[in-house]
Design a protein that fits this description.
This protein has 265 residues and is an alpha+beta fold. 25% of the residues lie in helices and 33% in strands. The chain contains six helices and eleven strands.
């Protein structure tokens, strides 16, 4: 994903649905959307989230603060060390979401921490890139952020061809584990599946079959066809956050089986 693609301030609505409903939705959006031209179908996303020692970003989500942020490093596809990493600052103010995104093709950790001045700024494009990196690093350093959670999931993304900006994404097989490492290598043996659970608005939570997370993304007004999807399929929006769901899952697992429990196994 190029960081030169302009992402407008947008609305995001999330829904947890069954696989059957997800398939029906994919068919229903066909007259309005095509597969994201940057993809050839479902692809893998690896996302490393950062937070403060007190987990302020997670707590802000739980409180539903009017203004809150997330910091993350993201890799697309079958990532191997040395490939480009996208650094993303996501800010939600009320219902609107804004993203500042920049791709690092060098030492992404050094750039995230503001330790790499990078090449000399000689044109508008490099100046804009430096400004985006500085915004990310400013929050990272000022808040003393550290890695907290590593997530991996499969995404299928569609883009509207009848609107200025509208997207529909389907996220499946969401897995995560806690980490303090600046690494995008996903260690599956450590991962827990995030099935949504009933407390996240998934009526069938806790079952064997994980739901699909559907997101409708658009500018400040929901297109008619999106509103019709919600009405036709009786979709119920949820505040599901992959990061916060992961943090809650880690906490539940910790309380359910404390570290000292192995002593008495």
């Amino acid at each position: 994903m190029s960081d030169r693609i302009r992402i407008p301030a947008r609305l995001e609505q999330k829904f947890l649905v069954s696989e059957a409903t997800a398939l029906a939705l994919t068919q229903a959006i066909a007259p309005y959307c095509h597969l994201d031209e940057n993809t050839t179908g479902p692809y893998t996303l690896r996302t490393l989230y950062f937070d403060t020692r007190r987990r302020e970003f997670h707590e802000a989500k739980l409180r539903r603060d009017h203004d809150r942020v997330k910091l993350r490093a993201r890799a697309y596809g079958d990532f191997t060390p040395g490939e480009p990493v996208t650094l993303e600052l996501k800010r939600k103010t009320g219902a609107l979401v804004r993203k500042t995104r920049v791709t690092s093709e060098a030492d992404w950790v050094a750039e995230a921490l503001g330790r790499d001045a990078g090449p000399e700024v000689v044109d508008a494009a490099s100046r804009e890139r430096r400004e985006r990196l500085d915004r990310f690093a400013y929050v990272m350093v000022r808040k003393c952020c550290e890695p907290t959670a590593m997530l991996r999931y499969r995404r299928e993304a569609f883009v509207s061809h009848v609107d200025g900006y509208a997207r529909v994404t389907f996220d499946r097989d969401i897995m995560a584990y806690p980490t303090r490492e600046f690494s995008l290598d996903f260690r599956e043996e450590r991962a827990l599946r995030l099935d949504g659970a009933s407390d996240a608005g998934w009526a069938g939570g806790g079952g064997m079959l994980s739901p699909v997370l559907v997101e409708l993304k658009c500018e400040r007004m929901l297109p008619v066809w999106m509103a019709e999807l919600v009405r036709t399929f009786h979709l119920s929006s949820t505040g599901f956050s992959k990061y916060s769901q992961a943090m809650d899952t880690f906490a539940r697992r910790s309380f359910a089986r404390p570290a000292w429990s192995s002593t008495y196994a």
